[in-house]
Design a protein that fits this description.
The protein is α/β, with parallel strands linked by helices. It has twelve helices and twelve strands. It comes from Coralloluteibacterium stylophorae.
Length: 337
């Protein structure tokens, strides 16, 4: 039989109210009591009845993940992290795909909030920096956590030093002897687009390599734009010997563009991306990329959001670390054939 809150309380020797306070991470519970209750919860495999809990508290215990992002691999990692946090804190998750930039965009968001009784939102780029959306949420008094926002002051969520990460990646390509390095940016509405482009330029400047705008093309953070923009770079009279793509999906598209032209990676072209999604190790050759811990970012942003739901003054903007993942798609410079 499924364990009840009464069973947990009896086994732990506390009241049902104390069990509830422990499950909700409320303050003013002695650590020894909190630990004892948590041990019983695990031993009995207790899971709260969220519907009954919601009715009793007149709350929904629902958070929403809002997104309009072309990178399915990135979004899946974020979603898993958000779900991990919701499960740990006994919240429900609803997904909020939107059509950012359209006339009905704000209506989609506010409609979801009302219909699902959402207590808070996790925002992904480019929603993180939409001024009208943020003002609407502030006006409604709905807390939100942002993943990789351009403006971080006064907000909660999680971010990463994408400028430094991009600069380190391009510096690595330079250390392999590459001097003609192409860059495919992401959509300009994303903070990551500007940060990664700035890191690319900084690495070139530090190495004394002149910036060539011909080698920089705007992409969309997706596979299709990688095929298209990668092809444009590879069709230049003097093509690049290395390309830094703004994310892994774009890099996978460049790999396809190179194959269509009879070029091999890394023999004829060194290639690197950004994110370290599972796909980066599933393509051939495995992709050199920047590890952005997207799953952890989703989890941490959600935990900060739930803190803010429980206490309006709670929640912080956290920064996570990145790491280069050096794989077979990048190799020392060889003169073009």
């Amino acid at each position: 039989m499924r364990a009840r809150i009464e069973d947990v309380a009896a086994a732990a020797g506390v009241s049902m109210k104390t069990v509830s306070r422990v499950l909700n991470n409320e303050p003013n519970v002695r650590e020894e009591t909190r630990r004892r209750v948590q041990e019983v919860v695990e031993r009995l495999h207790y899971a709260p009845n969220l519907s009954a809990r919601s009715l009793a508290a007149q709350r929904s215990y629902v958070v929403a993940l809002m997104y309009d992002n072309p990178s399915r691999n990135y979004l899946m990692e974020i979603q898993v992290g958000v779900l991990d946090a919701c499960r740990a804190q006994h919240y429900n998750l609803v997904l909020g795909p939107t059509h950012w930039g359209t006339e009905g965009f704000l209506g989609e968001v506010t409609g979801l909030i009302r219909q699902s009784r959402v207590e808070g939102l996790v925002l992904t780029p480019p929603l993180t920096d939409d001024a009208a959306l943020l003002a609407t949420l502030d006006g409604l008094g709905v807390p939100f956590a942002s993943i990789s926002p351009q403006v971080q002051t006064g907000r909660i969520g999680v971010t990463l030093d994408e400028h430094a990460a991009a600069a380190e990646m391009v510096t690595y390509l330079i250390s392999l002897g590459h001097r003609r390095i192409g860059h495919i940016t992401g959509h300009r509405s994303h903070g990551g687009c500007a940060w990664r482009h700035a890191g690319y330029r900084e690495a070139l400047a530090r190495a004394g390599i002149e910036y060539d705008p011909e080698l920089v093309i705007a992409g969309e953070f997706d596979y299709e734009s990688g095929v298209r923009t990668g092809g444009r770079l590879l069709d230049l009279p003097e093509r690049p010997t290395a390309i830094f793509a703004a994310n892994d999906d774009t890099a996978a598209g460049v790999l396809r563009a190179a194959s269509l032209r009879g070029l091999e990676v890394p023999r004829d072209l060194s290639l690197c991306g950004f994110d370290d999604t599972p796909m980066s190790q599933q393509i051939n050759p495995p992709l050199t990329t920047v590890r952005q811990p997207s799953r952890a970012m989703g989890r941490l942003a959600t935990l900060e959001l739930i803190k803010a739901i429980r206490g309006p003054e709670a929640g912080r903007m956290l920064r996570v670390d990145y790491a280069l993942q050096l794989r077979e798609s990048a190799a020392p410079y060889r003169a073009p054939r």
